[in-house]
Amino acid sequence: MAAVRRTAKGIWDRFSASDPGLLRLMAGLRTVGAILLALAVLAPLGTSVTHLVAGAMTAMVATFAIQEKEVRGQAITLALGLPVALAAISLGALLNSRVVGGDVFFILLIFGAVYCRRFGDRGTALGLIGFQVYFVSLFVSASASALPGLCLTLTVAFACSAIVRFAVVPETPERTLARLREAFRARLAQLIAHQIELLEADTGSAEAPEKILDDLRRSTARLHEAALMIQGRLEEGTRDAAAAALLQRRVADAEIAAERLGVLLLNARSAERVETLTLHLPSAPVALSRRGRIGQDAGTALRRDLRALHLLVVRLVPDDRGTALPYVRNRLLGYREEQGLPQGSPAVQDCFRAIGEAARAILGLRLAVDGARDEEYDSPEAMRSREEFEAEEISISGEAAEAEEEQTGLRRPTTRAAVQVSVGSALAIVGGEFLSTQRWYWAVLTCWVVFLNTASTGEIMVKGYRRLLGTVLGVVAGVALAGAVGNHTWAAFALVVLCVFGMFFTAPLSYAMMSFFVTAMLGLLYTLLNTYSFDVLVLRIEETALGAACGIIAAVLVLPVRTSHRTDEELGTVLARLRDVVSAAVSQLSGGPAVDLVDLARDLDTALDDLRSSTKPLTHPIAPLRARRQTARYIVALLETCAYHARSLAATAELVPSSKSVAADARLALAGRRITHNIDLIAAQVRDEETDGVIESGSSIASMLDSGRHEVLRTGSVAFRVLRHLQRLDEGIVGLARPLGVPLAAPEEGGTASASQRRHSANG
Q1: Where is this region: Disordered (predicted)?
Q2: Distance between CA 128 and CA 135 in Å, rounded?
Q3: How would you class 703 by CB atoms within 10 Å of its CB: exposed for 0-12, middle for 13-18, buried for 19 or more?
Q4: What is the pLDDT of residues 648-675, one digit of tens each?
Q5: Percent helix / strand / coil, the chain, rounded to 5
Q6: HEC string of 487-508?
Q7: Closest CA to 587 of 696, 665, 695
Q8: 402 confidence band (pLDDT: 50, 70, 90)
Q9: Could you give the C-alpha distances from 419 to 107, 113, 425, 716, in angstroms and in order?
Q10: Is 5 helix (H, G, I), strand (E, B) or coil?
Q11: What is the reported pLDDT for 288?
């Protein structure tokens, strides 16, 4: 029975790691539940099939359109959405027979729906409800005589959506955050499991190490994704700002400690130093040797301690307490202070120290989540860690966020998008009428959706391509499903519900898959409405292609935002955030005033995530310029590496005010000044500003490493680790200068680091 429970828990952990916070699962269940409840209420009333379809589609729209986090806000938006929906269905029914008037109103409605995004989640939801319900009126060919029944159907659909949202599948910020914490724990356990596989990898197989490295990269990226999702839900999901800041800091500590452990294990398994870029660039080569720099005894001890660390993560939840766990934790915590450190090479001993740091981060995470009431088992090292955590908690204070300059007029993204999508929709209406006077609205819908959550011409092109690909595949599935269900109405509705669930479950993962489920669902809906034919589904492909083409034309010709311009903007933002983190961290490490470095690091991560999204059109397989694709990947990977070292510096600097083992050192200011100077030059180049400076490089930081080695060994590894992060940052910024065309200074005499310096500047 225990084995079954462990297996079930392992399966659940993998699923939880694949769907952080179960957000996709809950969205799918909530939407499906609203549709099923609406059908269950409407069917006994003798509602016609046409009205059942309208009710199901409205219940779906009323559920997925609302994305606000607070329950009160969701209720208000849902209440406001009903009159908007009733107005949209009424106007759709009245204007259905008036071609010109209906088309003009549809374009105005599209403009208003997109423009309303500037008013936040509520404006976005109301605009989406208005557009989609008007589309429903076109889909079911609503008429004035059918309006009373349709209004009743829509009212029932909204009521069913409210019941499912607030009673059947309730969603509160606290519950979402709790599930995200569980997903973070599962992904952390998954990452450590892959690190164990890396340690045990058989280098005799050509494919096994590469697969393990891919798994390691993927699990590291997924852990970072979960951390970002938690940060986005903290303010609404915690009781106060101090609790949110505390949890944010603990999550950041755990992420940094786990990522650093992976880098050091890679370094130990390799015969030579491994670049941090290895974790962020899939094509970066790594040559794993049979043992690397790990002896047999040290390898056995490392495997034992990694499994113990994995156990601490798996048993992080409060229901899994046991007196053996604190003793395991205490032994691992001792490695931070050189207590019981196993014999081995410097690279191996760094791994054991990193395990100690990870154990401390896990203790802090457990304290933030549930208090970890097991102080009676504490060793002196564990007691000191708790005291440090308590001191940090006392020192936490919120700072007001700086207000960003708001763009106005056509420069505002919502206004520009509204104009673009209106022009594209007008073209789609004209072209769609030529293809079909009855199904023209599919072209308009495609033009609408390719503009959702896109900000550049390249993103619109990629989204249009994915929409068309998913539609073609969905037509094939729609033909097969329509033939299978025949005249069985409720079987068709059951398959529609499954398609809806698939649509919402896959939407964040693959837009092509979502389009596939949408088109397959439409084939079934046409079957229910007795309007199905193969020609109709072929027309769906034609209208989709037309709508995507109209969207692309509008994006290219009307107030265009070039992909390169958008990526340059996002790159400039990332560089500014990187400079803020490095400057503040070095200042605090040099004895300067304390600032909220965790918030600065979070802003850097958010900006980097935006840059990653903006470069997807450049790195997509259909992008024609291969060299540009490789350059974009390389720059993003370098920035991810720099962000990792900046986060590590920030995490170490946060310890200065409260820790007895981490002291400020004024000598670090000089190294930080050179790094920030280089970042400023690169940022100016990205902004196309005239600059006379050149990128400074040399061996100054490596020299500090070499000259300070004996002092570092006497006092511990923290100061040495800071210097290593600074050197890797320095090298990463210089690496960015080359592909971005920033001139480099001539190398200093003796500027090439010695072999000893290269060895000691291994990533940490």
Answers
A1: 745-764
A2: 10
A3: middle
A4: 888 888 776 655 556 666 667 777 888 8
A5: 75, 0, 25
A6: CCHHHHHHHHHHHHHHHHHHCC
A7: 665
A8: very low
A9: 10, 11, 10, 61
A10: helix
A11: 66
71/66 Cα distance (integer angstroms): 11
Quote the pLDDT of residue 663. 60
Are the C-beta atoms of 248 and 234 separated by less than 8 Å?
A: yes
Q: Is 716 helix (H, G, I), strand (E, B) or coil?
A: coil
Cα 252 from Cα 644, distance rounded (Å): 11
Between CA 506 and CA 556 the distance in angstroms is: 29
Q: How far is CA 383 from the centre of its chain?
A: 35
As given in the structure block, the two tokens for residue 567 are: 């990526």
CA dist 438 → 51, 123, 174, 441, 443 (Å): 19, 30, 47, 8, 12
Which positions ≥6 away from 669 have C-beta within 8 Å? 586, 587, 590
- Given a cut of 70, whether residue 409 has pLDDT beyond it is no
For 725, the token pair is 């992060």
Which one is predicted more confidently, 8 or 98? 98
Lowest mean pLDDT segment, chosen from 98-107, 248-257, 391-400: 391-400
C-alpha–C-alpha distance, residues 96 and 87, integer Å: 14
pTM (2 decimals)?
A: 0.78
Mean pLDDT, rounded, for 599-612: 88
Which residues on adjacent β-strands are paired with residue 267? Answer: none
Cα–Cα distance for residue pair 524/281, rounded to 1 Å: 43
Per-residue pLDDT of 444-487, as tens digits, reads 988 988 887 787 888 888 888 888 899 899 888 888 888 888 77
Q: For residue 389, what pLDDT is reported?
A: 72
Residue 406, classified by CB atoms within 10 Å of its CB into exposed (0-12), middle (13-18) or buried (19+), is exposed
The distance between the two most distant Cα atoms of the chain, rounded to a whole number of Å, is: 89
Buried b (16+ CB within 10 A) or exposed e, 742-761: beeeeeeeeeebeeebeebb
Strand pairing partners for 744? 695
Nearest by Cα to 419 from 322, 312, 560, 544: 560
- Calpha distance 658→644 (Å, rounded): 23
The predicted-structure confidence for 411-443, as pLDDT tens digits, reads as follows: 677 888 889 999 999 999 999 988 888 888 889
Where is 740: in which H helix or E strand?
none
Classify the phi-psi angles of 120: left when phi > 0, otherwise alpha if psi is within -120 to 50, otherwise beta. Answer: left
Rounded to 5 degrees, φ, ψ at 225 are: -60, -45
Which residues lie closer than 8 Å to 387 by C-beta, 6 or more apart? none
Structure tokens of 414? 């919502």
Q: Render pLDDT for 490-524 as a digit per residue (tens, 0 to 9).
A: 888 889 899 999 998 888 888 889 989 988 888 88
Inter-CA distances, 304 with 262, 293, 307, 350, Å: 16, 17, 5, 16
In whole angstroms, what separates CA 392 from the centre of its chain? 28
Computed over every residue of the chain, the mean pLDDT equals 81
Rg (CA), the chain: 29
Q: Indicate if the pLDDT at residue 404 is higher than 60.
A: no
Contact 28, 505 (CB under 8 A): yes
Token pair, residue 131, equals 């557009």
Once rounded to an integer, what is the mean pLDDT over residues 354-381? 78
Structure-token pair, residue 720: 């040495």
Residue 58 pLDDT exceeds 80? yes
Do 585 and 643 touch, CB atoms closer than 8 A?
A: no
